[in-house]
Amino acid sequence: DQQVKQNSPSLSVQEGRISILNCDYTNSMFDYFLWYKKYPAEGPTFLISISSIKDKNEDGRFTVFLNKSAKHLSLHIVPSQPGDSAVYFCAGGGGGADGLTFGKGTHLIIQP
Amino acid sequence: EPEVTQTPSHQVTQMGQEVILRCVPISNHLYFYWYRQILGQKVEFLVSFYNNEISEKSEIFDDQFSVERPDGSNFTLKIRSTKLEDSAMYFCASRGTTRAQHFGDGTRLSIL
Questions:
Q1: CA angle, corner A22, sides to A51 and B88, nearest 5?
Q2: What are the pLDDT digits (tens) for B65-105?
Q3: Helix (H), strand (E), coil (C) string for chain B
Q4: B58 vs A43, A89, A99: nearest CB
Q5: Is A98 an 8 Å CB contact of chain B?
Q6: Rg of chain B, C-alpha, whole Å
């Protein structure tokens, strides 16, 4: 049951360019989404969230876009930095449920 | 910055034994969670806890599992009789009034 899908297992981007990470969902009941970043041997670190009533949220270099009709969200990182190399998880929540539903993650590699 | 702490970082246990994983959530948070990640798979929700009781649990959280908040700071996950398939990273998370859940670095549980 893949309610949250991240179809790209990995993504390589040059330092300074924009990184775009994508996420699709099937559960219309989600009323918020979050992006997490994870380094090896550490827990997921919260990056940014968006409510389902918004279509954009921005925090510094990170912007999340939500297209509800397409059930699609994306995380933009600009400019990409070497420290951004990590696994990025998209998660959906709400709709009466408190637990988050995660995607499988996308491994972002920033090339110097 | 306040963080969620988990102990131990690695636990090795014989199959059939009981194991307790410990977490200290962020001090002013009221919502607490356990998740697990089996190697190569998604992060999966197990249980949420609020106001000294379970508020939601997944199908994974069967009678072998229990959670407790024995005092004002600790939050524990007990697995009564461990099975080989319980081997995973277990993450504790907490949140305050926003939806962002903050994760610890996890306990790697290895069942022999």
A1: 90
A2: 999 998 878 999 999 999 999 999 999 999 999 999 999 99
A3: CCCCEEECCEEEECCCCCEEEEEECCCCCCEEEEEEECCCCCEEEEEEEECCEEEEECCCCCCCEEEECCCCCCEEEEECCCCHHHCEEEEEEEECCCCCCEECCCEEEEEC
A4: A99
A5: yes
A6: 13
